[in-house]
């Protein structure tokens, strides 16, 4: 079945009914709450409503794409802080599979003063599980102090067994911080906590609050236009692209959390005037804390695609008054010809193409308008680990009739893609190859498929080029089996 129109509510509803009909009753009842079709908003300015159940346990036995709390802390929030060593505390596997991080670009000398793409683990063996791993952890911290004297601290990223055997990592952290006169942050992000990586983000935020803020006498001269960029992980250089724009409008970025970040940037964050949140899901907790404790307001922004970049820059500038607003208008005007060139070049090749998304963080909503700036349409979107407030925000971005799927199972996603046959799917590496084998172009939207940056006006040009390369790649015309080509059949006699 293929759709004639992009957002066909009836057909999307039928697809949901079809996948649910394949489940046992109990599973169907549970999954039905996570699948929906966006309806029109009755009262506010939003274009539609996306009400689905979210942030609850995946159904046992289905294939979920979620990660664990350890992944949320080590892989997202703490891992990119470049001048600290992050120990994967527990058996070797969790660290082995999270080696190298998520393309969080950084400046520095790896192994000397930066450690992002290195992997450190306490490598638990059976005797550590039986007798406890505290002594081993102490030894690891001592070795790190010896081998990497320019590291500015250590975090202890707990894997599942640490919580199960009850090791007192907080006591180890206090003892070793004193001995080495450094920062040691214990993070209770054991993978079994919560229902997805989302709780790991929250736990990691709380560890910043409890183990970093207000622990040192910070020597830092703050200014009136100082901002922290919160929740930009510098995938493919995104944070650098964002920083260029913010500095062009006259702001000073004093901290970027946590792509290319140093511990000092985290420590001095409470001195900023404003927190700008990029990934709301992973870092809203610490931003709310900074608002409550230090009186720093926060605002969300979207630097994907020119329409949202313009709006976000204007919104940020409003906070600082006429001088910054004037500069902002000049910056927007200066980029206008560049943006028009990008749109004129790519929209004839991309206009009308239909896209399905399934990602995490902020991308299921924030990239929607970047596609629309190129004349493309979003026909389905969903979050791996979103909460109710993410889906509420999604209503402002998607059109009525958009298929919405929360924590979508492997089976459901495949059936939705089969039914809709979009022109492009944007999701993760686990989805990439099955989708391409279905003959559908794909972009890996966790790591930008080894491209990027996608933030900012410059990033929009790269985004447009990448989508064009995926969709209009000549390989898709060669996809069918040769015997389906009448010319081949004729030749073969
Ligand atoms: S769930 Fe536990 S064992 Fe699995 S990767 Fe996460 S921390 Fe490691």
TrEMBL record:
<dbReference type="Pfam" id="PF00148">
    <property type="entry name" value="Oxidored_nitro"/>
</dbReference>
<dbReference type="InterPro" id="IPR000318">
    <property type="entry name" value="Nase_comp1_CS"/>
</dbReference>
<keyword id="KW-0408">Iron</keyword>
<dbReference type="GO" id="GO:0016612">
    <property type="term" value="C:molybdenum-iron nitrogenase complex"/>
</dbReference>
<dbReference type="GO" id="GO:0051536">
    <property type="term" value="F:iron-sulfur cluster binding"/>
</dbReference>
<dbReference type="InterPro" id="IPR010143">
    <property type="entry name" value="Nase_comp1_asu"/>
</dbReference>
<keyword id="KW-0067">ATP-binding</keyword>
<dbReference type="GO" id="GO:0005524">
    <property type="term" value="F:ATP binding"/>
</dbReference>
<comment type="subunit">
    <text>Tetramer of two alpha and two beta chains. Forms complex with the iron protein (nitrogenase component 2).</text>
</comment>
<keyword id="KW-0500">Molybdenum</keyword>
<dbReference type="InterPro" id="IPR000510">
    <property type="entry name" value="Nase/OxRdtase_comp1"/>
</dbReference>
<dbReference type="InterPro" id="IPR005972">
    <property type="entry name" value="Nase_Mo-Fe_asu"/>
</dbReference>
<feature type="domain" description="Nitrogenase/oxidoreductase component 1">
    <location>
        <begin position="68"/>
        <end position="471"/>
    </location>
</feature>
<keyword id="KW-0547">Nucleotide-binding</keyword>
<keyword id="KW-0560">Oxidoreductase</keyword>
<keyword id="KW-0614">Plasmid</keyword>
<comment type="function">
    <text>This molybdenum-iron protein is part of the nitrogenase complex that catalyzes the key enzymatic reactions in nitrogen fixation.</text>
</comment>
<keyword id="KW-0411">Iron-sulfur</keyword>
<comment type="similarity">
    <text>Belongs to the NifD/NifK/NifE/NifN family.</text>
</comment>
<keyword id="KW-0479">Metal-binding</keyword>
<dbReference type="GO" id="GO:0046872">
    <property type="term" value="F:metal ion binding"/>
</dbReference>
<dbReference type="GO" id="GO:0016163">
    <property type="term" value="F:nitrogenase activity"/>
</dbReference>
<keyword id="KW-0535">Nitrogen fixation</keyword>
<protein>
    <recommendedName>
        <fullName>Nitrogenase protein alpha chain</fullName>
        <ecNumber>1.18.6.1</ecNumber>
    </recommendedName>
</protein>
């Amino acid at each position: 079945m293929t759709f004639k129109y992009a957002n066909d509510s009836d057909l999307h509803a039928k697809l949901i009914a079809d996948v649910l009909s394949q489940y046992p009753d109990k599973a169907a009842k549970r999954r039905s709450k996570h699948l929906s079709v966006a309806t029109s908003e009755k009262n506010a300015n939003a274009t539609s409503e996306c009400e689905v159940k979210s942030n609850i346990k995946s159904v046992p036995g289905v294939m979920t794409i979620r990660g664990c709390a350890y992944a949320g802390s080590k892989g997202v929030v703490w891992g990119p802080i470049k001048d600290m060593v992050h120990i994967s505390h527990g058996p070797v596997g969790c660290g082995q599979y999270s080696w190298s991080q998520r393309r969080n670009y950084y400046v520095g000398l790896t192994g000397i003063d930066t450690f992002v793409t290195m992997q450190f683990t306490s490598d638990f063996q059976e005797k550590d599980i039986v007798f406890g791993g505290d002594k081993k952890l102490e030894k690891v911290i001592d070795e790190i102090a010896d081998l990497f004297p320019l590291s500015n601290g250590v975090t202890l990223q707990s894997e599942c067994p640490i919580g199960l055997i009850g090791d007192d990592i907080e006591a180890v952290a206090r003892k070793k911080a004193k001995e080495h006169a450094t920062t040691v942050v214990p993070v209770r992000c054991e993978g079994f906590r919560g229902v997805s990586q989302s709780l790991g983000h929250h736990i990691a935020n709380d560890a910043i609050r409890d183990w970093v803020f207000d622990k040192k006498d910070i020597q830092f001269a703050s200014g009136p236009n100082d901002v922290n960029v919160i929740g930009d992980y510098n995938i493919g250089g995104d944070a650098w692209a964002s920083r260029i724009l913010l500095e062009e409008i006259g702001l000073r970025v004093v901290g970027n959390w946590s792509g290319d970040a140093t511990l000092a940037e985290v420590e001095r964050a409470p001195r900023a005037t404003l927190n700008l949140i990029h990934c709301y899901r992973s870092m809203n907790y610490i931003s709310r804390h900074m608002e409550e404790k230090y009186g720093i307001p926060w605002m969300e922004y979207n630097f994907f695609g020119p329409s949202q970049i313009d709006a976000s820059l204007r919104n940020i500038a409003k906070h600082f008054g006429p001088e910054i607003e004037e500069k902002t208008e000049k910056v927007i005007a200066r980029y206008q010809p560049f943006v028009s060139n990008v749109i004129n070049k790519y929209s004839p090749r991309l206009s009308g193409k239909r896209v399905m998304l399934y990602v995490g963080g902020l991308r299921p909503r924030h990239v929607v308008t970047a596609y629309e700036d190129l004349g493309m349409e979003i026909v389905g979107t969903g979050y791996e680990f979103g909460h109710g407030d993410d889906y509420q925000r999604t209503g402002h971005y998607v059109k009525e009739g958009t298929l919405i799927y929360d924590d979508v199972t492997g089976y459901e996603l495949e059936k939705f893609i089969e039914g809709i046959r979009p022109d492009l799917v944007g999701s993760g590496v686990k989805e990439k190859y099955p989708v391409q084998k279905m003959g559908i172009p794909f972009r890996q939207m966790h790591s930008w498929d080894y491209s990027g940056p996608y933030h900012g006006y410059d990033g929009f040009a790269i985004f447009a080029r990448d989508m064009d390369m995926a969709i209009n790649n000549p390989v898709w015309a060669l996809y069918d089996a040769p015997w389906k080509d009448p010319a081949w059949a004729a030749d073969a006699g």
